[in-house]
């Protein structure tokens, strides 16, 4: 249910350029925009929007946008420009909706920098899945028709759903994201404009120049000249600042990732997460840290192919759960007396995603029935034996092995049992042959079933992988021993029954329960503890052959 609603919008054409647009329309460039009168069907609560706008509330950043009639621009809720009068604004659920209505992005608050759309905020799963597909691969060949086909409905229906819930069509959403990313690259990198055009999917420089000029009323070169605080990066190094809606429990995120970091591939050191990556045949690495006080994660990326930048940053956004809408999640979880203290003591705990679904699933299999620490040792051996060497220095030495390599690997030599080794090989073959894919997944249940068809993968592993690889906020490994212990329950059926009240945010509840289990295991322990070894362990899947 969306807590936001649509404002009864005064429909006026702008009479003047506003103070914070600072944009002059060039003679002959075009006429003043005509704002579309179409009012989306969404139930936006204008009072909530208005309050958030007037208090510049960062918790609402990216949850709605403000079209200002007097300036013709659209803004984030946190825009530092003086407030327009209520009668002169109209609220939109997405930037694309504001753009569709004829507003231009504000050059001051830079809507392209806002945290992503909280996809699960009162939208049906079809819309959420389509949004996920757009961020994973853009609107591929075939456009909206193909996208609709993939989520299993007709294109007209998909268009209607998008208009109803996001206020814009799928192609407008994709176009706005592309435009925003191009603007970010112009502002924050030294990439040549031809590379920016490629990286943001414009295809050719001419189309890119025309597109930017149309939306921003400035050429890409003029925009770059104006960019503030641009730090020069060496070639193939990029710095991105990814916004989130506070609160964000960064320490909680690192506390989860650190003990699970695969030696050589990833590490957590002094508040920074780092890892190696491979994308479309190019290798690289990135590191992520928190910029306290700015609601920003700072990403330093080293990567040789600018065409992949958009999808890499989208993947990192998903990995750190930056689109989460804490306000909606907390409402659900605080209603449970078991969770309320946890939620209040560590607000903003996110569900850590992953860089690569195959890597995560392999890691989850390694972790079946052993401690997190033991699984991390095995993962290190796996990488050392089968990973591709990588020379970024600073402790990152390998890329995680590919499915093709692990499909026939002699895994018993790193200390796995024959059965566990075969499970990993079977997973690797399924991914290599395209029978299982973690990208472009539209059906959560199908992925669960496919995973469970592999001997040695049961519900725990499958749910855990779905929770972290698909960003499925309602995924819930109800057979997990840590979760059962935290709730004081004896079996997964009782836990599932209790968890009904947490829907559709059961994954977040799981994160809090693991945190709770860790605290009750070793109260007051500040060092590496059994905590981190016991959370996230399954009770034995019935289909997993037990071994001693
Ligand atoms: Zn603004």
Description:
This protein is 43% helix and 11% strand. By secondary structure, the protein is an alpha+beta fold. It has a domain at 1-166: DNA Methylphosphotriester Repair Domain (3-Layer(aba) Sandwich). The strands form 3 sheets. A 5-stranded antiparallel β-sheet has the order 5-9-8-7-6, covered by helices on one side. The chain has a 4-stranded mixed β-sheet with strand order 3-1-2-4. The chain has a two-stranded antiparallel ribbon with strand order 10-11. Strand 10 (388-393) and strand 11 form a beta hairpin. It is globular. It starts with 45 loop residues before the first helix and ends in a 14-residue tail after the last helix. Zinc ion is lined by residues 20, 75, 79, 81, 106, 108-109. Zinc ion (ZN) binds at residues 20, 75, 79, 81, 106, 108-109.
Poorly predicted spans: 1-33, 37-41, 522-536, 539-548
Name the average pLDDT: 84
Radius of gyration: 24 Å
Annotated CATH topology of the domain at 1-166: DNA Methylphosphotriester Repair Domain
Bound small molecules, by name, code or SMILES, are: zinc ion
Class by SSE composition: alpha+beta
Head-to-tail CA distance between termini = 49 Å
How would you sum up this structure in a few lines?
The protein is α+β, with helices and mostly antiparallel strands. It has helices at residues 46-54, 95-100, 125-137, 143-151, 155-166, 170-188, 193-199, 205-216, 220-226, 250-260, 309-319, 326-333, 337-345, 357-366, 372-386, 403-406, 418-432, 444-452, 459-469, 481-487, 492-499, 506-521, 530-534; strands at 65-68, 73-75, 89-92, 104-105, 237-243, 266-269, 272-279, 282-291, 296-303, 388-393, 396-399. The radius of gyration is 24 Å and the shape is globular.
């Amino acid at each position: 249910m969306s807590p936001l609603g649509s404002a009864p919008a005064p429909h006026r054409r702008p009479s003047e350029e506003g103070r914070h647009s600072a944009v002059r329309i060039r003679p002959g460039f075009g006429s003043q925009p005509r704002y579309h009168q179409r009012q989306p069907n969404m139930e936006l609560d204008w009072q909530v929007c208005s309050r958030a706008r007037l208090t510049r509330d960062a918790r609402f950043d990216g949850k709605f946008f403000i079209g200002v009639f007097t300036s013709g621009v659209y803004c984030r809720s946190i825009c530092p420009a003086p407030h327009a009068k209520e009668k002169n604004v109209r609220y939109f659920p997405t930037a694309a909706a504001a753009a569709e209505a004829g507003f231009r992005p504000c050059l001051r608050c830079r809507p392209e920098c806002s945290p992503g759309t909280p996809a699960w905020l009162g939208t049906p799963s079809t819309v959420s899945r389509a949004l996920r597909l757009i961020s994973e691969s853009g609107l591929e060949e075939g456009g909206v028709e193909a996208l609709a086909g993939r989520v299993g409905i007709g294109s007209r229906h998909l268009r209607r759903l998008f208009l109803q819930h996001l206020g814009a069509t799928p192609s407008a959403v994709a176009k706005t994201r592309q435009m925003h990313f191009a603007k970010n690259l112009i502002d924050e990198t030294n990439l040549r404009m031809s590379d920016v055009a490629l990286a943001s999917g414009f295809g050719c420089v001419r189309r890119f120049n025309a597109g930017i000029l149309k939306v921003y009323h400035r050429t890409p070169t003029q925009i770059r000249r104006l960019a503030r605080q641009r730090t020069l990066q060496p070639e193939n190094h990029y710095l991105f600042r990814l916004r989130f809606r506070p609160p964000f429990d960064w320490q909680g995120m690192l506390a989860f990732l650190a003990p699970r970091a695969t030696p050589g591939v990833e590490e957590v050191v002094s508040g920074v997460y780092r890892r190696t990556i491979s994308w479309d045949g190019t290798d690289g690495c990135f590191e992520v840290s928190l910029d306290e006080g700015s609601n920003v994660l700072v990403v330093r990326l080293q990567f040789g192919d600018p065409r992949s930048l958009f999808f890499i940053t989208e993947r990192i956004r998903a990995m750190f759960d930056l689109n989460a809408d804490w306000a909606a999640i907390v409402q659900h979880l605080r209603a449970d007396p078991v969770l309320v203290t946890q939620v209040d003591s560590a607000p903003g705990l996110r569900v850590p995603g992953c860089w690569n679904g195959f890597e995560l699933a392999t890691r989850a299999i390694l972790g079946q029935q052993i401690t997190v620490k033991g699984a991390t040792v095995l993962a290190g051996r796996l990488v050392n034996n089968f990973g591709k060497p990588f020379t970024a220095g600073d402790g990152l030495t390998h890329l995680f092995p590919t499915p093709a390599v692990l499909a026939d690997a002699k895994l018993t030599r790193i200390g796995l049992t024959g059965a566990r080794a075969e499970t990993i090989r079977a997973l690797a073959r399924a991914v290599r042959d395209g029978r299982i894919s973690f990208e472009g997944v539209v059906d959560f249940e199908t992925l669960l079933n496919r995973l469970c068809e592999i001997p040695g993968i049961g519900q725990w592993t499958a749910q855990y992988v779905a929770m972290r690889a698909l960003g499925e906020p309602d995924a819930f490994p109800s057979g997990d021993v840590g979760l059962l212990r935290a709730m004081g329950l004896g079996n997964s059926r009782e836990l599932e029954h209790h968890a009904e009240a947490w829907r559709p945010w059961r994954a977040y509840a799981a994160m809090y329960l693991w945190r709770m289990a860790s605290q009750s295991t070793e109260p007051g322990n500040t060092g590496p503890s059994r905590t981190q070894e016991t959370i996230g362990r399954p009770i034995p899947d019935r289909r997993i052959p037990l071994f001693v």
